[in-house]
Amino acid sequence: MGGFTSNTKSIYWPETRTLIALALPICGAQLAQAGMSVVDVIMTGRHNATDLAAVSVGSSLWMPLMLFMTGTLMGLTPIVAHLLGGQRNTDIRPAVHQALWVALVLGIIAAVLLWTVVTPIFELMQVPPAVARESAAYLTAVAFGMPGIALFQALRAFSDGMNHTRPALWISLVGLAVNIPSNYLLIYGGDGLVSLFGNGLPGSLQQLPALGAFGCGIATALSMWTMAVSMALYTRKGRTYRSVSIWKTFTPPKLSGIRELVVVGVPIGVAIFVEVTLFTLIALFIASFGEVTVGAHQIALSFTTILFMLPMSLSMALTVRVGNTLGQQRFAMARTVAWNGIVISVIVAAINSTLLWVTAVPVISLYTSNADIQALALTIISLAVIFQLSDSLQVNLAGALRGYKDTRIVMVITVLSYWIVGLGGGHWLGAHGIGNLSEPMGVHGYWIGLIAGLSTAALLLAWRLTWISRQE
To answer: Which of 57, 112, 184, 443 has a CA-to-CA distance to 450 between 20 and 30 Å?
Structure first.
């Protein structure tokens, strides 16, 4: 027993500390970037209802595009982690350069889409003309920032693969620090400045126009480019990156490097896109159930999304650790690292479930004072407590598999589990029930479908990790 305890401490505790040290800055960066969306909603909401609706509708279009780009560029992280673990530092620079070329192309494509297809989409969705006009202006401005955020995500994936996750946290906070005053100045214009500083300001500042949603879009694009430039400067000056020197010379586009990134990264982007669209479609289906149900669903989803940041960050850190170990050709150790991360994810799930259960009532009361919404939200969160385990397990199993560069099977499992079991099963339960055994379950049916979908994904991904770690 003594030998087992010593061995456990010598392997698992140092690995656990390393994994958590990598994950916490990632979590902070995710929260900072989420904070920008919160600031946008609060500030436009205080301006007027039309601008708030315009930003909300517009965000539902550009956020999935950004998340697809982010997922695709995350493919660079295991590539860099493998090369770093194998001490092949000279191969890291060209790999990063290919990712930057891909990021630039993806960013430009995303910008063109936001400039060209939003008006037909708004007509199809029957968005009110005033909201559609303001939202189109907002997206026109945001589009200029899409190449910037793509380049930032590529450099962040490189830094994460180098076991250096803190820069993304600090630079995301810089982006938030730029976003807040820029939003205030551009949304409210001179009137906002006068309300803050009085009439002593120069007349030119007092006469600045209030741009509303369009100003919010400009501030968002400005924050995106600030983060990109800051990350570029840091990766050029930071000591951690001197062994790689990615800015010393620049590699032109090469098909082999781009192909490797696309093969690893695009399935990650598709998997993330599928997850986002799952929740979007559920929200659309639930909309017919009335305002109370929609409000309760959004409260439960918002609360659980915040808590999900930690398992997701742990997953991204696990990709780095598994990739590093595989790059060192330590295949048995890579398997240990992967399953140690899965055990930690179970502990994190237990913590999240406890937090949900203990804090549900006071947190719901912060969102709304409506007693009907509060009561329904509490029943939904009771279901959310159950799926914390499946959710944490599936995202960390996927993270470990990304460390093995095994992303295509993960994509297939994700699509099948989320859309067929999660969305299909949830819609059947919500709209039809279980034959003679149950009436239509409404919003609860959709959340039971989520539990089933996430559990299915967790089981299939656990099988896949077991198989591939034994193959290695």
So the answer is: 57
